[in-house]
From TrEMBL:
It catalyses: D-mannitol 1-phosphate + NAD(+) = beta-D-fructose 6-phosphate + NADH + H(+). Residues 53-321 form the Mannitol dehydrogenase N-terminal domain. InterPro entries: 6-PGluconate_DH-like_C_sf, 6PGD_dom2, Mannitol_DH/Oxidoreductase, Mannitol_DH_C, Mannitol_DH_N, NAD(P)-bd_dom_sf. GO terms for molecular function: mannitol-1-phosphate 5-dehydrogenase activity. This is Mannitol dehydrogenase domain protein. It comes from Eubacterium ramulus ATCC 29099. PANTHER family: MANNITOL DEHYDROGENASE 2-RELATED (PTHR43362:SF1), MANNITOL DEHYDROGENASE DSF1-RELATED (PTHR43362). Residues 337-533 form the Mannitol dehydrogenase C-terminal domain. The keyword Protein transport does not apply. Keywords: Oxidoreductase.
Length: 551
């Protein structure tokens, strides 16, 4: 309060806006780097001749993809910004883009406590993909019918591509999209196909659709959903055969695969307060009604890796000049993705994050730095159990990648990443993050019984699903589409009464849709059951079980 008052009387109030950043001296004094390019000019250029569109304009987009474009603009190898499109959470546009003239503030948090601040001016305009709003919808059509458009990238979360429920039936919104056709599209996939249809009618212009989400073989996943929506609209008569051929021809509509990596936690309230104390107004994070945690700034670590299949039928920006960007062939992307998602990074997060919640640790890094057993478990997953069965992608060394994670990235407490964030949607990830290594052990050794830390992580995730911590207190689960279903299956299991655990895990551990394999056939199902039983014994049982297996 006092600091804010002093700032006001000294006239140092800074506003994150096009006018606000004209007060260059104040920003420089605060240690914040401003764009070295003409933000208004690169926005205007993008509005007239869009080249790069992005869907899903949340945190990782702003700091990583936006940051890459910002770097290319600084170098003078890009001459326009990115067109930002939101199909899901319009609050993001209303609360985080419009009030700040589409500027963002990147806050890079180093492990020694120092920070880098940079205003990102690469986000040219923000459009809501709302078919019920003619102004936004027509603008979207203008963008997609521009010959200049080379690529559309996506960070819409894994759920953004999904059309069907686990039982194979359509989600209700997808069913409505199929029935109502392109001009009433609502879901991300329907909006995209509706816009591709406009592009097809305007001249069959080529384009690259580049998923940058953290899902396996992301390009194939995006392509499958786009083709499915196209086929469904063809059946109902909304689109013609020529359009089906256009979308299906990978020489015209390409779906490059990518591997993306940059730990980007939710915005920190402490950082918001620090920025306001530096004199920048209105830095507080918001939680939107759709549960996006977002702020005018984005906090993230410095390291970043983006491996992109070089397949862009209409040309592309000089992406290879971006920090941490590698252009490669599809096989190299695939191997890089498997290295990161199935072995080195995400399995560690998914195995230890939910357990961290049960043990009462808010921050992931603090847990690893202070709980020896959790650090041992994390290292076992990556070094002892994952590395022996991972293929080397060539462009990145798995050993060096894991070493960087454990020496610099995971221990970085300044990053403020929470175990609760790591527990979001774990049910959707267990197949790719654990199942692949388990299958590799079966292929190599006949079964996976020699694994310990991965089964412990799976048992820990299921123990977390009870919603009761290691002291016996209830806690709120992070969002996950299977929360209700699993809690129903576990309703008779009582922490402290091991006799209440009978065969409740059987349908889960044998579910090949979840784990991509039957864990009982692989020789780890019973082991996980035993670990789970031990974790139920009473207060402190989770801590003791972890110690027993890794200590
Ligand atoms: N945060 C990270 O550390 C990280 C690192 C690598 C990759 N990723 C990938 O990026 C994705 C987004 O992460 P983030 O940190 O930007 O999250 P975020 O919550 O900040 O942003 C998510 C964005 O996706 C949109 N979205 C959410 N559900 C959607 C749906 N069903 N359909 C269409 N759009 C939808 C939101 O509106 C928002 O624009 C992750 O799911 C992951 O695949 C994240
Ligand atoms: O984003 P999710 O939910 O797929 O996974 C949680 C974390 O493992 C993930 O966000 C990592 O921080 C990220 O993959 C690092 O590149």
């Amino acid at each position: 309060m006092i600091i804010n008052f002093l700032i006001i009387i000294q006239g140092y109030i800074m506003k994150l806006s096009l006018n606000g950043i004209k007060e260059q001296e104040a920003w420089e004094k605060a240690g914040i780097t401003l764009p070295g390019y003409d933000v208004e000019a690169v926005s205007e250029k993008a509005k007239k001749e869009p080249g790069w569109v992005h869907f899903g304009i949340g945190n990782i987009f702003r700091v990583f993809i936006g940051g890459i474009a910002d770097g290319l603009l600084e170098e003078g190898v890009l001459n326009r910004g990115i067109t930002c499109i939101e199909t899901f959470d319009y609050d993001v546009v209303d609360k985080i883009y419009d009030p700040y003239d589409n500027l963002g503030l990147s806050v890079i948090l180093h492990g020694d406590g120092t920070r880098e601040y940079k205003v990102i001016g690469a986000l040219a305009e923000a459009v809501k993909a709302q078919s019920s709003d003619p102004a936004h919808w027509n603008r979207l059509k203008e963008i997609f019918t521009s010959k200049s458009l080379q690529m559309v990238s996506f960070t819409i979360t894994e759920k953004g591509y999904a059309l069907q429920k686990a039982d194979g039936t359509w989600f209700p919104f997808v069913e409505a999209d199929i029935k109502n056709g392109p001009d009433k599209a609502t879901g991300a996939m329907a909006v995209l196909v509706a816009m591709l249809y406009e592009r097809y009618k305007a001249g069959r212009y080529p384009i690259a659709l580049v998923s940058m989400d953290n899902c396996s073989q992301n390009g194939a996943k995006l392509r499958e959903s786009v083709l499915t929506m196209t086929e469904e609209w063809k059946k109902v008569g909304f689109v013609d055969e020529g359009f089906v051929n256009y979308v299906s021809d990978e020489k015209i509509v390409a779906f490059p695969w990518t591997m993306i990596d940059k730990i980007t936690p939710r915005p920190s309230e402490q950082i918001a307060a620090d920025l306001e104390n530096l004199g920048i107004e209105n830095m507080q994070p918001v939680i939107t009604s759709k549960k996006t945690y977002i702020a005018p700034f984005v906090n993230a670590e410095k390291p970043q890796y983006l491996v992109i299949e070089d397949n862009f039928p209409n040309g592309r920006p000089a992406l290879e000049k971006g920090f941490g960007v590698y252009m490669a062939d599809r096989n190299t992307v695939n191997l890089s993705e498997r290295m990161k998602v199935t072995v080195c990074l995400n399995p560690v997060h998914s195995a230890t994050g939910p357990l961290g919640v049960v043990l009462g640790y808010d921050l992931f890094a603090h847990m690893l730095n202070t709980n020896e057993d959790m650090m041992k478990m994390a290292r076992m997953i990556a070094y002892d159990e994952g590395l022996p069965v991972v293929a080397n992608p060539g462009i990145l060394s798995p050993q060096a990648f894991v070493d960087e994670l454990f020496n610099e990235r995971f221990p970085n407490e300044y990053l403020g990443d929470t175990n609760l964030r790591l527990a979001v949607d774990v049910s959707q990830m267990v197949g790719i993050r654990f199942g692949e290594t388990i299958k590799a052990y079966v292929a190599k050794f006949g079964d996976a019984s020699r694994l310990t830390a991965i089964p412990l992580g799976i048992a820990g995730w299921l123990r977390y699903m009870l919603g009761v911590d290691d002291e016996g207190n209830k806690f709120e689960l992070a969002p996950d589409p299977m929360n209700e279903e699993l809690q129903e299956q576990f309703k008779d299991i009582v922490v402290g009464k091991t006799e209440t655990f009978k065969d409740q895990l059987k349908p889960i551990l044998s579910n090949e849709r979840l784990f991509f394999t039957d864990l009982y056939k692989d020789g780890v199902g019973e082991k996980i059951e035993e670990m789970f039983r031990e974790m139920l014994a009473g207060p402190g049982a989770v801590r003791a079980t972890i110690h027993k297996y890794v200590g």
